[in-house]
């Protein structure tokens, strides 16, 4: 599943540059994650980088966008063009 940024976000700007898929962007009030681009860093890293750098722990799994590791890997391959 993709990740989501909660209302606890303090707009510290550290998560956006860490995302290898450019899935994080500034929303109207807080940062947001595009579920079509989020792979939880599958294919890039062992753990989601945004979660690793977030100082307020406001990036949980998005229960509304459930995906298996296989689906996340397929999305990674589609986004990067890697086989």
Folded structure, characterized:
The chain has about 80 residues and is of the alpha+beta class. It has a single domain (about 15-80), classed as Alpha-Beta Plaits, CATH 3.30.70. About 20% of the residues lie in helices and about 5% in strands. It has two helices and two strands. It has helices at about 50-55, 70-80, and strands at about 25, 30-35. Strands 1-2 form a two-stranded antiparallel ribbon. A hairpin with a 4-residue loop joins strand 1 (about 25) and strand 2 (about 30-35). The protein is globular and about 35 Å long. The mean pLDDT is about 95.
Properties at a glance:
single chain; 83 residues; alpha+beta; Alpha-Beta Plaits; two-stranded antiparallel sheet; 2 helices; 2 strands; 20% helix; 7% strand; globular; 4Fe-4S; metal ion binding; 4 iron, 4 sulfur cluster binding
